[in-house]
Amino acid sequence: MTTKTPAAGSRFDQQQDLQAIDALRGYAVLLVICMHVFIHVPTLAWPVKRLLLLGHTGVQLFFLVSAVTLLMSWSRDTGHAFGARARQFFVNRWFRIAPLYFLAIAFYWFFEQRTLDEFNLARLVGTLLFYNAWSPYLLPTIGGWMPAPGGWSISVEFMFYLVFPLLAMLVTTMRRAVLFVVLAYALMLAASVFGQGLYPEVGAEARDRFLFFWPPNQLVVFAIGFLLYRAVKSAAVQDWVRRSRLDAGGATALLVAALLAVQFYPGKGWELLVFLLPQHLLLTLLFAGWALFMLLKPRAAVAPGTVVEIGKMSFSIYLINFAALASVETLLSMLWPFGVTGILSVVYAAILFVLATFASYRVARFTYRYVERPCVRFGKALHGADRHAWLSIKTGDRREGL
């Protein structure tokens, strides 16, 4: 991906821009895998453990990029009435997410060797209908069988889909995007206060985890994605980026420095500040600033082809990495001849990360080709949005939407 800056007023939805989108997705899923590596290496050296904990914000980066890509797709279809566009959107999103997700639920039942006494019908129904993020009893906050690892984020994503068409029709300017962020931020604060009185029986720690997962706490991330989209479409912002001495490389260096400062800052006693600006919101703002330069002034050095390729299959990799890490860790622990403390724990974790990422990628190539893409094309063919979609299922045409 060569360095480029769009001319003022140019459209930000051209094919070359998709490389930057895929790079952001790639970094998001790599962050998630980092977090899961930490879970598999509990004896990891403290500084590296603190660093890998940042991986949980990979989900927020996914949400941020999702809002941008959905708006890119929505803005291209201006020839249909709102009802038809919304119906087309819901069909596309369902076939984009549900088939592979449901397949993952079935796979993990057997992979984790679950038994019938562990089965929980309420959790299964909540997961299949994507409302599991609304209750701590349907999330991994109180233990027990979970139909699919990482399912909370997919539930939150689907909740956003339900309101996206309306938001896309209302939030059409920079000013409205700012208002959306303000309202979503107010909702986050109100939900944090109100939520403290919910589910007292599950305990404070489990309730706090639930309040992090549930949609009212995450909507502000999608709202910042709306603002980012309006920013990259703004001629004034494009002109400012073009004149800036900063590019994606410099923005990446600043992001890394900011992430390190946030994670290793030793200060305590800032409860009010943490409440007003929780870490997931602070890091989303940092990601948005970084993404602005990744999208408008990219550099090949910070968006290598490998990361772009991983980003294209990020959904498959997200679902697969849990099993890949468990399998690789089992094998690696049997072959590892050293201890797993101190510097050796860092080496062990690095090897686990590389091998699990590679394994996830290899399996994802299969699921992406034979599950994700055919389902996306079939969804398009169902509502006739693309007459070529049905033919592409038969001919293997590789074209697809976002």
TrEMBL record:
A Gene Ontology cellular-component term: membrane
GO MF annotation terms: acyltransferase activity, transferring groups other than amino-acyl groups
Listed InterPro entries: Acyl_transf_3_dom, Acyltransferase_3
Keyword match Methyltransferase: no
Every Acyltransferase domain range: 19-361
Protein keywords: Acyltransferase, Membrane, Transferase, Transmembrane, Transmembrane helix
Membrane-crossing segments per the record: 20-39, 51-74, 94-111, 151-171, 178-199, 211-232, 244-266, 272-296, 317-336, 342-364
One of the GO BP terms on file: polysaccharide biosynthetic process
Record keyword Transmembrane helix present: yes
Pfam family, one: Acyl_transf_3
Name listed for the protein in its UniProt record: Acyltransferase
Organism this protein belongs to: Massilia forsythiae
